[in-house]
Design brief:
Blueprint: E1 5-8, H1 11-18, E2 23-25, E3 41-45, E4 51-57, E5 63-69, H2 77-90, E6 100-105, E7 114-119, E8 122-127, H3 130-133, H4 136-147, E9 151-154, H5 158-164, E10 171-175, E11 181-185, E12 188-192, H6 207-214, E13 222-226, H7 232-239, E14 243-248, H8 251-263, E15 269-272, H9 275-282, E16 289-294, H10 306-321, E17 324-334, H11 341-355, E18 360-366, E19 384-389
Helix pairs in contact: 2-4, 6-7, 9-10, 10-11
Length: 390
């Protein structure tokens, strides 16, 4: 039995943990915890003294406990090594598609607040809680032992670390990291940057969806890729012989997509403009498209923001449907847990009414398998997408 300090949870939290939910909120704790330090490992007990799990504790955060294990077991080097080896093994099948993939996906790999991405020999890492930060050196040594990376760059999220009471890391922490790293996905080349790129460098979670949407882009088709970022979706269209127009407001994204187009020996139209402004103007022109991709950044990081986000997405899709040719295809995505597949379907139904166009649902999409969806952890199902046909 572990001799960690005890934290007692209420009935509501107990019921969630019995279903292997991995978070305990501050208002679910019923005993005095003033003596417990940030990042300390604790044992979770129900009000009858029953063991519920072991987790990191941090009273600075509303998510006060992140469950590390539902078993009463030693939390040591062997524990972390076993979890890391298992996570790496789960991704082996992706090597035939790409040399870039997520290796560790936080709670979904039972390593809360730890993110590790692999990019053609380099690692991007995030240590996003006080608890996982305490095991930083151990985890880095295990990653080096099992993956032999050229370099490791820390891309920890400043917003989350600030809540946790931690300083932000954004630096090379092992070896050397190239300014630009070339990766390959299904035969398409991408140049990305761990040093300057968003998140941990590249939107790996959309790999499978880029491939699926790309199958709808045929030679000679006119394709519009809005919120294009590095150009992932549109580059599949270029590979298939489509004419592609890329749109993004970010100077870094425009630079990236322009470089990636050249890297693949292709040509395309690239426009730096706000997506809402672009689409508002585009529906006044005679331009029509065979395929439209709407992959916006997270409009709703919290539940409170979801109303405004839904309104914005409804405008984008309603207007976007008017830009499609007969039998045209639109793929729309939400990378927020608060706007899931049911909300996207409702948005699509309203957009159908607003645009005066009936739509057929062709595909329901979610994140690729290196971003596992654990049924017991609803937040792990954060990326949703739909492909619609007019």
């Amino acid at each position: 039995m572990s001799n960690f300090k005890k934290v007692v949870i209420n009935k509501e939290s107990k019921e969630k943990l019995e279903k292997f939910y991995t978070w305990v909120y501050k208002n679910e704790i019923v005993n005095d915890v003033a003596h417990i330090e940030s990042g300390e490992l604790i044992q979770i007990k129900d009000q009858n003294g029953g063991f519920m799990g072991i987790g990191y504790f941090n009273y600075n955060s509303e998510i006060t406990i992140r469950v590390l294990s539902f078993q009463d077991e030693p939390i040591n080097e062997a524990f972390f090594e076993k979890r890391i080896i298992k996570a790496i093994a789960k991704r082996k099948h992706l090597k035939v598609k790409s040399n870039a993939y997520r290796l560790i996906h936080s709670e979904a790999d039972l390593l809360p607040a730890l993110i590790v991405d692999f990019y053609n020999g380099y690692l991007g890492v995030q240590f996003n809680s006080f608890g996982i930060e305490k095991y930083r050196e151990l985890i880095l040594s295990l990653l080096i032992k099992h993956l032999h990376p050229i370099g490791i760059f820390d891309k920890s999220e400043s917003r989350v670390r600030k809540i946790e009471g931690l300083e932000t890391k954004n630096e090379v922490i092992f070896g050397e990291v190239a300014q630009n790293i070339e990766i390959i996905e299904n035969g398409i080349k991408f140049s990305m940057s761990l040093i300057e790129g968003q998140k941990t460098g590249f939107y790996l979670d959309q790999r499978k969806n880029r491939e699926i949407v790309g199958e709808y882009m045929k030679e000679g088709d006119d394709v519009l890729d809005v919120f294009c970022n590095a150009g992932g979706f549109g580059l599949y269209g270029l590979k298939n012989g489509a004419n592609v127009h890329f749109v993004d407001i970010s100077p870094n994204a425009i630079s990236q997509v322009t470089h990636n187009i050249t890297l693949n020996g292709k040509e395309a139209i690239v426009t730096k403009q706000d997506a809402f402004d672009f689409i508002t103007n585009e529906i006044t022109t005679p331009n029509l498209y065979n395929v439209l991709v709407l992959d916006p950044p997270p409009f709703a990081k919290t539940k409170k923001e979801s109303f405004g986000a839904i309104k914005g997405m409804k405008f984008l899709l309603s207007s976007g449907l008017k830009l499609l040719k007969e039998d045209g295809i639109v793929a729309i995505f939400s990378c927020s847990h608060h706007i899931g597949i049911n909300e996207l379907l409702d948005i699509s139904l309203d957009a159908s009414k607003n645009s005066g166009k009936m739509v057929e649902v062709l595909e329901i999409l979610r994140a690729d398998s290196d971003h596992p969806y654990i049924l017991n952890i609803p937040n792990s199902n954060y990326l949703s997408g739909i492909i619609l046909k007019v």
